[in-house]
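USER:
I would value a second opinion on how I read folds in token form. Give me a protein, with the fold worked out from its sequence. Write it directly below this note and I will take it from there.

ASSISTANT:
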Amino acid sequence: MKFGTKLGWILVAFSIVLSIWVISGIGNEASTTDENGFVIEDDGVTLSGYTGPGGTVSIPAGITTIASGVFADNGAVTSVTVPDTVTSMGTGVFSGCTNMSSVTLSGNLSSIPDSTFYNCSSLSGISLPGVSSIGSNAFYGCTSLSSVTIPSSVSSIGSGAFDECPGMSSITVSGGNSSYTSYDGCLYNISGSNLIRCPEGKSSLNLSSACTSISTDALKNCNYVSTLTIPATVTSIGSQSNWNPSVIYGYSDSAAESYAAQNGITFEVLNTSDEGGESSDSDDDNNGEENSDSGNTENGDSGNTDSGNTNSGDGSGTATGTTTGTGGSTSGGASGNGGHVKDATPKTADGDIDPRYFLSLGFLLAGVAAILYSNKKKINYVKEHRNK
């Protein structure tokens, strides 16, 4: 056998062995499951799944990242402690944990991602660490929460963050926040000019005297607010889903009168002499139980949906519990239910093609080429005799 042919077959055989080695190693290198059911990636710091018995769960110290949906739809989990080593989480980590009543979050989390506590109907309290953002639908369907405190570090709140929370009667913003403030238990932009969200469990509402606009769905599902006095300073009111007050009080030719007429709501005209007294205190509105600060990153001074800062929802269910962290907090005890739960199947591999496959293919092609080249004369001879 010619040297080129031998070399070719050696390369082909090597490529086959290399392929088998790569394939057999795939299942072993993606992740490992410890004795408590935690599925940890081969980097040793990423939690990608959980197969344990539930109950009280303490995530191992040293974990820095929790992948999307690790505990999603796990009805056996009743409480979770996240160590301070964790700095980031994927979306929907606790989504659908309907029996989870308490969570202790890492004090070093950078954000609360989208749908983190989606439909956690038993969660009755949570202390938020110094995160910079709260994602869309983060607390959607948390029917047992009665209040939430937004840390001073938060500069962004996603749409629907507190939707479907019928027991929530208060949203408070911590002092020093440069993007948001609160008044009478409601969320406003920093200047207090735009009402962003009235919690669904409030039974009455006094608008800030600085308020000039009411965002779209700021009053969504706020059916306990059956009457509302809207001052003449409010010039823009966005559409409101599932809010049907019995009476709106306001002034002639105002945004309030237009909104009432457009939505078939009884409107009662206030005397001009009453203007300025129906809403609340004066410019120090934001210095009471809630607070304010300077700066404004909120894009919601019109009656339309705030840029990334709107809410909506409805729901039912019951539960109790608490959570701790550092920064803001929440507590509760109410009834309700949430809607959809995100599909958050944990990933155990990154999905990239192993570069060793390309190496194996290279050896295979080189081997075939070597065999063909060394037998070039023989191949030509066969072709010539076939043509005769």
